[in-house]
Amino acid sequence: MNKLLTTVVAALFAGITLGAVAADEMKKADAPKATPATPATPAKGDAAKATPATPATPSPKAEAKTDAPKAMTKEEKKAAKAQKKADAKAKAEAKAKAKADAKAAKSDMKKDDKKADKK
Asked: Is 42 part of any domain?
């Protein structure tokens, strides 16, 4: 039974894969081909006009380099480490408080249940 199930799953996988590949090939074959644009020819009497120069713009790579953060100084590293330590301590305190609150709520529920049983 296990071999039969494995064979069926393998056949399904192969069929689905081949179908997807065939569909992908069909999409590629049906894709419209790009036609090259025809260059505009100036009229016989017109002189070729020079296009004005565009102002230089920095490349995206150059912009990325200027936006990159600079290396941290020793003081900044020390401050970041202290902040991280303080955050961890605050998180631990909050977790302990939540645990204590949950424990208190649980004991309150038990007290309420005992009072209800006595009535």
From this structure: no
